[in-house]
Amino acid sequence: MDQNRQGARASYVALSIFVALWILIPSAVRRFNREAFVEFQAPALLLLGKSRDMATFWEKKSRSVEEMAAAGRDLARINAALEIKINALEDIRRENVRLREITRYNVPAEYMSVVARVATRDSSSWWQRIVIRKGRNDGIRPGAPVVFGNTVVGRVTAVHLTTSEVDLVTSPGFRCTAYLEGDDQNRIVLVNGVASNSLGTAKARVSVIPHDYFMPAGQPARVFTTGMGGVFPSRLVLGYLDGGTYATQVGNFKESLLIPSRDLYNLQEVSVLVPLHQNPGEALMQGDQFQ
Amino acid sequence: MGWAWLILLLATYPWLLGADLASDTLASSSLVFFISGTCLIAPCRRLKRWQAILFAACLGFLFEARRPIPDGALALSLVAVSIFLSSNRQLLRNTPGMLWAAAIVNTGACLIWFVASSHVSPASAGDLVGHLLVQLLLAGVVGSVALVPIALTQNATLDRLSIPPAPDTP
Fold first, then answer.
1. Domain housing B111
2. Does a structural domain hold residue B166?
3. Which candidate in A41, A126, A174 is best for mutational testing of the B interface (most B CBs within 10 A)?
4. Disruptive mutation site among A23, A124, A174 for chain B (greatest number of B CBs within 10 Å)
5. pTM for this one?
6. What is the ipTM of this complex?
7. How many CA atoms lie within 13 A of A94 on its CB side?
8. Within a domain: B102
């Protein structure tokens, strides 16, 4: 029995020494350790995501021919409508190029779009994240914006070999600048995630709303990215203002909550917009896995 | 057998993956299906102390790896718990004792990661007491309910590895 107690005491002492060493060792060692455990889990996550896709595939394959024919007909109609839209956008693009040539406007940094499937979702009060099945091997870099259509989903926070972690718009670590629909002066507001404290839908906070801003009547005001800072392209939809705006404690500005325009926990696929040229913010993020 | 802890970790991993899947379905409610504390109970009865320590550290690091929790906060706490449990095996002699231990360890470990996460989060912890209580309640219930199937899997693995039931003194 005494031997057991002595052994336990020695273990506690060893643990205390290890804790002290753990705090003192360079952060690179801790990061390597974290990375090793992430990579250990990565194959299982990939397998999980792929088996989900397989289940969906077989579920769809089991549908009747009539159902498939109806779906094909609907798709053909949608395609026809989209073709008209594409032609209109092509006209606008040509006009845009012509105007840029006239004004010698510098083309903003272009993005490379990488489509990725969602492997798993994970959320708590302190984080709202998804893990996607694309990583460093596919050219994804930390800080890259993640979108679905023209809707912002979040931002890549950590990149591993075959997977990446994405902080959602509602995650406390997320922040960006935005414009409000109906504000003709295009004044900048701030959007940042809020620590979730209820079982309801996670939301973000829109702050620094000017006092004289009023939401357009009869429809929820949309919130767009500004394109400043070089992270998000401009005019992407972040979400909608939730109900009314309310004055802050100081009273100089108003605040409101932001509802993401898509159900972020039901996304199956997202696009990562990887900037072709590294921007300064991205360089700062490298090595900081928590932001 | 020196590698028993690693083989046991591989045998336990499907449960951790299952918990991640359950967290995935609970994602819209911001709750995490946490079972790392529960997975520690049965191995602490039979593994040697150093093996239980390595097993506990890996359990903690696996949970921390993809989440913004300060490095080692949970892993080192689980190591301390594993030292305590493997030094007081009489607490885990019967099933009610194990169930109590699972609920307490799982809830305690959940509290540790929740508090540790608040240190690296830019958000304030002011209004989160309610959510913390719900998360702890879930961890306690899940810890007790999941113990039996997890312990069965782990004991079957240890039996196949011919690890004898641990004596009262390690």
1. 4-160
2. no
3. A126
4. A124
5. 0.83
6. 0.89
7. 5
8. yes
| A257–chain B nearest CA distance, Å | 15
Close Cβ partners of B31 (under 8 Å, ≥ 6 residues apart): A123, A124, A199, B23, B134, B135, B138
**Contact state of A128 with B30 under an 8 Å Cβ cutoff:** yes
**What is the domain count for chain B?**
1
CA dist A51 and A283 (Å) reads: 35
DSSP A198: S
Cα of A197 to nearest chain B Cα, Å: 5
In chain A the domains, ranked by start, together with CATH numbers, are 2-44 (no CATH), 111-291 (2.40.10.340)
Q: Is B15 on the interface with A (CB under 8 A)?
A: no
What gap in Å lies between CA A146 and CA B65, rounded to an integer? 21
Closest CA to A210 of A230, A194, A187: A187
Q: Mutate which of A3, A5, A11, A266 to test chain B, going by most B C-beta atoms within 10 A?
A: A11
Provide, as residue numbers in chain B, all residues whose Cβ is less than 8 Å from the Cβ of A265: 27-28
Q: Is residue B143 assigned to a domain?
A: yes
**Tens of pLDDT, residue by residue, chain A (291 residues):** 678 888 889 999 999 999 999 999 988 999 999 999 999 999 999 998 899 889 989 988 888 888 889 999 999 999 999 999 999 999 998 888 888 777 765 555 678 889 999 999 888 888 889 999 999 999 999 989 999 888 899 999 999 999 999 999 988 888 889 999 888 888 899 998 887 766 667 788 888 888 888 888 778 888 999 888 778 888 888 988 887 777 766 667 888 888 887 778 888 899 999 888 776 666 666 555 443
